[in-house]
Amino acid sequence: MDILDLRTSLETTLVDVLGVYRLGNNSMTPAIAVRSEGEGVPAGIRVSGLECVIMRDPVLRKVRQYRNPPARAKWVVYLVDWEGSGLVEEGARAILMDWPSADLYEMRVSEGLGPKAQMRVEIQL
Predict the structure, then answer these.
(1) pLDDT exceeds cutoff 70 at 14
(2) CA-CA distance, 52 to 15, in Å (whole number)?
(3) pTM of the prediction?
(4) Under 8 Å CB-to-CB from 54, ≥6 apart: which residues?
(5) pLDDT of residue 26
(6) Residue 5: pLDDT above 90?
(7) CB-CB contact of 81 with 118 (8 Å)
(8) For residue 114, what pLDDT is reported?
(9) Angle in degrees, 0-180, between the axes of helices 88-98 and 3-13, rounded to the nearest 10
(10) Cα–Cα distance between 26 and 6 in angstroms, integer?
(11) CATH code of the domain covering residue 107
């Protein structure tokens, strides 16, 4: 599965809980993006609700078995709740329904320093 397939699958999985990006021209689009490490929301875009951020480059994990691919991709995805809507857990639950082997890591966010809640999800393919 490549990153476009993963993005499409995640957008379908999270359709009921995804927030929106409001673009500079006031149009709206689902709040799901592919970004590089350290890259933030582009200037002029506002986020509301739950945002899903997929890291552009997967982490490769070595497979120690004969005749299997030498490595597997582990995709890192962040679920970010900017408004305190409580949808991080609901989004994580939806992801686990489609990828039961996904690993979830709750990330604590200090009061007033960004999003209200955040979770790191690792999906191994």
Answers:
(1) yes
(2) 11
(3) 0.87
(4) 3, 6, 7, 10, 32, 33, 34, 35, 75, 76, 77
(5) 92
(6) yes
(7) yes
(8) 74
(9) 120
(10) 27
(11) 3.30.2000
